[in-house]
Every structure is written in structure tokens, then in C-alpha cells.
């Protein structure tokens, strides 16, 4: 659906890493607060591309000023060709990150340099299939995988605590939720995101379960608001 960058990874385990983004179309979920609804609600346009074409676009748009590619979506796991894309990125000497919710497994996930599994808390309106998630965690035990949960309310935080207890060996990230993904008032958005971040920190510091969790904002929304392609 889009190739953009170089920018910085604004979320999770490699936050701050300079990276290109490849965003795939389509999602098996429909989270109420999804900040990338255009990938699945029919408002965006997507073109079917071969992995080699995406590599050429990465080179043309990135201009050689990058060494890391993040594949996000939508759910990148819905596309079989991604395995080949990952292989080609590695052949070019680039590291590869992936963002997925952990609902569809693909064998190429074992080859990913940093993989973020982001199961969805109750506020999203989605239900986690724990049989599937158990499979992901088992199969990524040797990989550089983390869990990241976006938090909007106390019920979400409880979900995150239960998840962290279920998979104690997996590095755990809590992320501020953006509740207004369409505003162009950056000053107002930044103020409300920082307020939500402070609230999330206050929950995490009180929790005996989150002693080794990392609490992070979405860095790119603090810098660029809801702008697309950054
Ligand atoms: C757009 S999703 C695409 C990848 C995959 N479908 C997933 O959800 O993990 C990328 C990341 O953005 C997060 N995200 C989506 N909407 C958000 C929002 N309104 N506020 C904060 N994070 C959000 C998701 O939880 C996920 O970690
Ligand atoms: N800078 C930046 N960082 C991101 N981290 C995850 C993103 C995503 O939409 O998956 C994203 C994004 O869209 N931009
Ligand atoms: S799983 Fe990810 S892309 Fe799909 S609807 Fe939820 S946040 Fe959006
Ligand atoms: Mg995003």
C-alpha cells in the first residue's frame, strides 16, 4: 500500500531506529481505534507488487540512506510474498522488523530481526485467540520478539498484566493509545498524548506485575501528529 522513509521507528523495541516502512494492505482485525484504517476500510488504494518491485522502490525512495526496513500494515502476515521480500532485504544487507497482531503465522517470521507482536486489548473490540498466540510465542522463542500492548483504559491495563504473566520471558512494552487519529491540531494532540503517557506511567509504576515492562509513547505522533507516511 505504501513505501516510505527513511524515518525513525516510533514504537516499541527498536524505537528511534532509522528505518524504511513497507505497509501492506488488508487486515483480519478491525480495531475500533486503528490508526491505519485506510489499509482495510476501503478508503485507501493498494497495488499488487512483486517483492523485487518493492526492493526497487525502497532503493529509489530511501536513496541508500537506510539499513533497516519495517514491514507493517494492516497485517503483513496475510501476504505470502513477504518471505521473499525479507530474503531480498537481507541479501541487500538490511535488517527487517515486523509489526503484527499475532493472529496469522508465517514461517518467515523466524527470520525477522525484530518482531513486535501486538495483541489487542478489550477497548479495540477484538478478541485474542490465545491458542494462536501461544503458537507464536513458542515458535518465536529463539527470535528477537517482543509483546507490545496499546492501552486506552484500566481494563486494557489489566489485559496487559494478564498477558505479561502468561508470557513472562518475552520483553514487554506498554504503549500510549492515540484516541484522535484524524485531528490536524498537533498542539492539542501532543498535549493529550503526553497526558495519556503520564497516566500510563502512573499505572505501570503502581503495578507489581509491570516491574520490568517498558512504558513508551508513540514517538512519531508526538513529532508529526497524524501525518501519514512518516
Ligand atoms: C497499524 S498496526 C499494523 C500492524 C498490526 N496490524 C498490529 O496491529 O500489530 C501498527 C501498530 O500500531 C498500533 N496502533 C494502532 N492504532 C493505534 C492507536 N490509535 N494508538 C496507538 N497505537 C496504535 C498497533 O497496536 C500496532 O502495534
Ligand atoms: N515512524 C513510524 N513508526 C511506526 N511504528 C509503527 C508504525 C506503524 O504504523 O506500524 C509506524 C509508523 O507509521 N511510523
Ligand atoms: S490489527 Fe493492526 S492494522 Fe489491523 S485493525 Fe488492529 S491496529 Fe489496525
Ligand atoms: Mg502507525
From TrEMBL:
Gene3D superfamilies referenced in this protein's UniProt entry, alphabetically: Aldolase class I
Key words, A-Z: 4Fe-4S, Iron, Iron-sulfur, Lyase, Magnesium, Metal-binding, Queuosine biosynthesis, S-adenosyl-L-methionine
Span of the signal peptide: none
Quaternary structure (record): Homodimer.
Names of required cofactors: S-adenosyl-L-methionine; Mg(2+); [4Fe-4S] cluster
Recorded metabolic or biological pathway in which this protein acts: Purine metabolism; 7-cyano-7-deazaguanine biosynthesis
Cofactor info, note text: Binds 1 S-adenosyl-L-methionine per subunit.
Binding positions for [4Fe-4S] cluster per the UniProt entry: 27, 31, 34
Enzyme Commission number: 4.3.99.3
Pfam families, per database record: Radical_SAM
InterPro entries per the UniProt record, alphabetical: 7-CO-7-deazaguanine_synth-like (IPR024924), Aldolase_TIM (IPR013785), Deazaguanine_synth (IPR017742), rSAM (IPR007197), rSAM_sf (IPR058240)
Functional note: Catalyzes the complex heterocyclic radical-mediated conversion of 6-carboxy-5,6,7,8-tetrahydropterin (CPH4) to 7-carboxy-7-deazaguanine (CDG), a step common to the biosynthetic pathways of all 7-deazapurine-containing compounds.
Leading EC class: lyase
Domain called Radical SAM core: residue spans: 14-226
Chain residues that bind substrate: 8-10, 23, 72
Catalytic activity: 6-carboxy-5,6,7,8-tetrahydropterin + H(+) = 7-carboxy-7-carbaguanine + NH4(+)
One example GO MF annotation: lyase activity
Annotated source species: Planococcus chinensis
Protein name: 7-carboxy-7-deazaguanine synthase
Gene designation: queE
Xref: PANTHER family: 7-CARBOXY-7-DEAZAGUANINE SYNTHASE (PTHR42836:SF1)
Amino acid at each position: 500500500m505504501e513505501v516510505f522513509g527513511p524515518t525513525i521507528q516510533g514504537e516499541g523495541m527498536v524505537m528511534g531506529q532509522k528505518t524504511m516502512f513497507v505497509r501492506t494492505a488488508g487486515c483480519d482485525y478491525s480495531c475500533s481505534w486503528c490508526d491505519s484504517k485506510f489499509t482495510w476500510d476501503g478508503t485507501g488504494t493498494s497495488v499488487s507488487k512483486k517483492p523485487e518491485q518493492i526492493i526497487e522502490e525502497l532503493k529509489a525512495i530511501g536513496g541508500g540512506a537506510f539499513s533497516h526496513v519495517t514491514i507493517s500494515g494492516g497485517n503483513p502476515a496475510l501476504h505470502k510474498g513477504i518471505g521473499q521480500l525479507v530474503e531480498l532485504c537481507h541479501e541487500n544487507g538490511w535488517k527487517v522488523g515486523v509489526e503484527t497482531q499475532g493472529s496469522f503465522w508465517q514461517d518467515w517470521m523466524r527470520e525477522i530481526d525484530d518482531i513486535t507482536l501486538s495483541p489487542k486489548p478489550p477497548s479495540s473490540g477484538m478478541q485474542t485467540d490465545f491458542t494462536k498466540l501461544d503458537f507464536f510465542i513458542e515458535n518465536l522463542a529463539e527470535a528477537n520478539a517482543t509483546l507490545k500492548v496499546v492501552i486506552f483504559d484500566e481494563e486494557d491495563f489489566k489485559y496487559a498484566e494478564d498477558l505479561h504473566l502468561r508470557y513472562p520471558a518475552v520483553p514487554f512494552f506498554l504503549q500510549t493509545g492515540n484516541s484522535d487519529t484524524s485531528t490536524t491540531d498537533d498542539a492539542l494532540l501532543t498535549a493529550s498524548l503526553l497526558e495519556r503517557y503520564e497516566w500510563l506511567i502512573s499505572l505501570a509504576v503502581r503495578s507489581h506485575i509491570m516491574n520490568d515492562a517498558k512504558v513508551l509513547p508513540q514517538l512519531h505522533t508526538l513529532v508529526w501528529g497524524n501525518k501519514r507516511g512518516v
